[in-house]
Design brief:
about 400 residues; Rossmann fold; Argininosuccinate synthetase, chain A, domain 2; 3 domains; five-stranded parallel sheet; five-stranded antiparallel sheet; binds arginine
Length: about 400
């Protein structure tokens, strides 16, 4: 085995990463630095500090990354209206490059030669962490205990914990829990009964949204302000990126918005079924499309829509820090220069519908489109010629076909 001097571990304080921490100390006999990112997962993070201290960790970093997460990762992605396979808002995918960035930053600061993560050997997250680390610091080694140790089952994991006096919470003793990943953008739940896509997800799987039929019977009207493609206010109140997303998560959750039951294609090769809850993100996607509808030129909007699946796939597959993602980002960002204004939506029993939009940079021309007499010079005869020329090849083709 290669000699490692110092490791920075992405540490949640949960059972799995607590075991990983111990395993790293035993296996490599070196110092392990614990890094816990606050991404708005809605969990107490101080217990992680206590647990790491108890395991003899001297250097523990709990860092609040909520603003950076939303400002530099979620919002740039939202400018693209990114959806993987037409539906998934990429809540887990977009968090990994940020965590990797800080793992690398801390590794450099403390002079570590390796970073470690608790992602399993079957998922996308290991790929995302490691591709990001490769792109940011090719000299760093990556340790993925789930691929290296010979713990192969939940039972063996608990045995290892027992043997090393790692406290196992009583609710973790029975059957394996769902695999949950949460942050300010979404909660994702996989595993257990969900592994059978024929089974309807039980109600207790959902954590931050009410079932749409149980949502309030009165709709709620909200207005979101945008500046250059990014949301900046709710109901006229300016907010920081993380505060804004938190606010919309509350509103969306209450109205049952943003639930998704999806079978997706993992980069690694298998299909997997998951339940996603993305209340604020779902509202923002509808709102952003609403403001773009009046501020983007047609060809610009259509070009964005063409590259979107490619851009989303890059994020899903872990290529956030790759040159082609940055190139597409530059294109997307340039398109947003005039994407400013207000969008009003109605939140009602699981849906977020745009009901009005205004912008100081609107391209919408009532004068152009009106059915009434219009002041703007529009010659109806131009439309006749336009259709005649566009129809030329169709008439030619139909005559040949003998229609
Ligand atoms: N399938 C999702 C993705 O690849 C979520 C993965 C993490 N979620 C989890 N419940 N472990 O982005």
């Amino acid at each position: 085995m290669t000699k490692i001097e110092k490791i920075v571990l992405s540490y949640s304080g949960g059972l799995d990463t607590s075991i990983i921490l111990k395993w790293l100390q035993e296996t490599y006999g070196c110092e392990v630095v614990a890094f816990t990112a606050d991404l708005g997962q809605g969990e107490e993070l101080e217990p992680a500090r206590t647990k790491a201290e108890m395991s003899g960790v001297k250097d523990i970093r709990i860092v609040d990354l909520r603003e950076e997460f939303v400002r530099d990762f979620v919002f740039p992605m939202l400018r693209a209206n990114a959806l993987y396979e037409g539906q998934y808002l990429l809540g887990s995918s977009i968090a990994r490059p940020l965590i990797a960035k800080h793992l690398v930053g801390i590794a450099r600061e403390v002079g570590a030669d390796a970073v470690a993560h608790g992602a399993t050997g079957k998922g996308n997250d290991q790929v995302r962490f490691e591709l990001a680390v490769n792109a940011l610091d090719p000299s760093l080694k990556v340790i993925a205990p789930w691929r290296q140790w010979n713990i192969r089952s939940r039972m063996q994991l608990l045995e290892y914990a027992e043997k090393h006096h790692i406290p196992v919470p009583s609710d973790k003793r029975g059957e394996a829990p769902f695999s949950i990943d949460a942050n300010l953008l979404h909660t994702s739940t996989e595993g257990k009964i969900l592994e059978n896509p024929a089974e309807v997800a039980p109600d207790h799987v959902y954590q931050r949204t009410v079932d749409p039929p149980d949502a309030p019977d009165t709709p709620e009207i909200i207005t979101i302000g945008f500046e250059r493609g990014d949301p900046v206010s709710v109901n006229g109140k300016a907010m920081t990126p993380a505060a804004l997303l938190t606010e919309l998560n509350g509103l969306g959750g209450r109205h049952g918005i943003g639930r998704l039951d999806l079978v997706e294609n993992r980069f690694i090769g298998m299909k997997s079924r998951g339940i996603y809850e993305t209340p604020g993100g779902t509202i923002l996607l509808a709102a952003h499309r609403g403001i773009e509808s009046i501020t983007l030129d047609r060809a610009a909007a259509h070009l964005k829509d063409e590259i979107m699946p490619r851009y989303a796939e890059l994020i899903y597959n872990g290529f956030w820090f790759a040159p082609e993602r940055e190139m597409l980002q530059a294109l997307i960002d340039q398109s947003q220069a005039f994407v400013s204004g207000d969008v009003t939506l109605r939140l009602y029993k699981g849906s977020a519908s745009v009901i009005s939009r205004t912008s100081p940079c609107s391209l919408y021309s009532a004068d152009l489109v009106t059915f009434e007499e219009s002041a703007i010079a529009y010659d109806h005869h131009d439309a006749e010629g336009f259709i005649r020329l566009n129809g030329l090849r169709l008439r030619n083709w139909a005559a040949r076909n003998g229609r």
